[in-house]
Amino acid sequence: MGKRVRWRLVVVAILMCAVSVGAQGASVAALTAAAKHAGNLPGGIMGNWLSYNGDYSGRRYSGLVQITPGNVHQLRAAWVFHTHNAGVLEVTPVVRNGIMYITASNDAYALDAADGLMLWHHSRPISAGLIDDASNHINRGVGLWGNRLYMETDNAHLLCLDARSGHLIWDVAYAPQDTNYGATSAPLVIHGKVLVGTSGGDDGVRGFLAAYDAITGKQIWRRWTIPGPGEFGSSSWPGDSYLHGGGTTWMPGTYDPELNTLYWGTSNPSPDFDGDGRPGDDLYTASVLALDPDTGKLKWYFQFTPHDLGDYDGVETPVLIDRIYQGRLRKLLIEANRNGFVYILDRVTGKFLSATKFVKGLNWASGIDPSGRPILTNVKPSANGTLVCPGINGATNWYAPSYSEATGLFYFIALNQCTVNYKKPENFAVGREYYASNSRRDPFHKGQKVLMAFNPATHQFAWEYPQIGNTHSWAGVLTTKTGLVFFGDDATSLEAVDASTGKSLWHFRTGQNIHASPMTYSVDGKQYVAIASGDDLFAFTLP
Amino acid sequence: MRYRWIVAATCCIVWAVGMTIVHHQVHASQSAAAGSAAESEGTALFNQNCAVCHGADGRGGERAPDIASRPDIVALSDAQLTGIITKGIMSAGMPSFGHLGSGKIQLLVAHLRVLQGISNTVNSPLPGNAQAGKAIFFANGSCSSCHTVDGSGGFLGNDLSKYARGRTAAAIEAAIAHPDNSNSSWHLMTIRTSAGAIYRGLIRTQDNFTVILQSKDGSFHAIPRRSILGITDSGRSIMPQNYSEKLTGSQMNDLVSYLMKSARSIKLISDQPYSRTVR
Fold first, then answer.
1. Which residues of B touch A12 (CB under 8 A)?
2. What residues in chain A have per-residue pLDDT under 70?
């Protein structure tokens, strides 16, 4: 070996050492920086997308500027990753330092985010004996903490995997097994605590949110959403009905690091359509809870739909925004709720500020009173069936909304659809859903999805983009600093529109009904947009 | 003179080797005979008690599920299968077979493993002390620097928690003493690029366009193939090749025992009850 080559090798070796030491330090620094960024900085999410919603605010607003309204028409498919055994993917990928983490049906994958090559695959069989949503084995994604990755399984286990290999570190069953509990969500990691909820709100479980230590897997706290005997709100839950009250926590919440407050939504009460056994407001179902993430202590709550009879879960993303509202800068919480109203709350105190109807033909309430309480009509489920609008699938649902700092508008997908809801008393039973009793499609109207652009300052819609399709999409929204809105449309396409006008600028037909929400990230200076569709993960980039 | 000596020596060696082979064959067929007696009893028990519902091949039928190929059932540990057979599953209509006694249930589990394509490991005694083996596994710079068992250990090598399933003690020892050098996935590779970088680690995935290597610090490096000047393949597994010298025979037996015990345990699928503390 010549002297010159030897010198070069030495230099490179030293650089490699420095880089690897720096890389380790950088990954810690990146995490700390990410934790800081996760708050309310106007730039939003940048090259990494570190959690289900990208950051703690739930805005799904990206500060990346490479893809613009001017060049988005050139966007093209970069790669596709096929998951072999998933039913339908509902995951939002997490990307950190060029590695993408996704989940399928109890499986987790690490992919090279630039070209979709698989780095590792953690495989786990789907669980037998589940009912309702969990029996579809859906999974919304992962949480990260250092070199550890967290995911839920369909039967409500929390798994901790080594993010470098996919090896299992620990596995904790966090809900009683062989019951109607399941899980379909993505854990949220805050301060080394992993927050997990469950599904089963239509199946008569008692909802809860739990925090587990990210290193040891030990439970730190558990907050039941249905009060037990003697607790505030227990008048709604006579006898042991509190054990089957619903109020589950099946979507990831949001978090304000400055206020150190966690915002988490709860589902409808059980049984869905028969409220006779649960008199009163049915706290804390169909609500958003503001919690201390270190102790689970309740700071405040707001109930969107007291004594819900429409299956109007309150688990839609409670998006945290800071903006001028009615003359002054305010910390707000904005949520497009399943019940057909888009709400604005003060997220410091929980004070109700406004509610605006966003679907046509809403008939279960005539409005919302000044305290935030719905003014009910007499439309409710009946033995012979009642047409209720919005119907059982809600005026919107779990698919992601997004708030753009660029336009100041709040974007979400609305579903204009009614259903005929039936009330028939049922008893709770393990292994059976607990709707009491069921619902059918509106025989006269198919329903339609609409992409809405809501202006929180004026409480009006800047524009609406009605979708032509079969209402089989369950796809969400993403916004970027360059003034784009990406969303899954109702005919299998990923579409990009101008955020100010709603004009469609680009689309790609994935050919499969989209049940997930788009996200964006960058690797080595190149921006990608990715979305799960059917059982494939698609990534797009500029030429 | 010299040739005659060589011929005689060769004949002795051939004779000795031949006797050893015969001896091994006799020994093997004796243990096979003992093994197959147990197998026949296991088969008979299965046919009498299980086949009526699950089929003689275990693939299920109208009355009972496929217990031979369903991944979630194959993934159950021996202890979990024993529990299910002993207690039954009332809600699903499977009766309890506890009346057969633990000896016969062991044979049933062993037969089911044969149907599942996993050979009988239920009756194999551990060759050493599993607890001592655990200490060896987790000793400084030892197996756990690359491998994980039951959630602890390294990321470069495979998770060995269930490795021993379906493998004999002898096969496990052979895998430790003589790492499989034929699989280049485990070879330490050195990649030099036109940018002057050098990467050292394991190639995790590659195609016509990209090589992805994981280095010892855990980072993944996606290297465009067109930038690669050369890949140097160490030619053998990154796993140390000299464990048969580093470990005594008794330590090796302990290490193998630890892996076998781990594969039989149910620790990873947690049945710890969650805390019902109400706040």
1. 196-198
2. 1-43
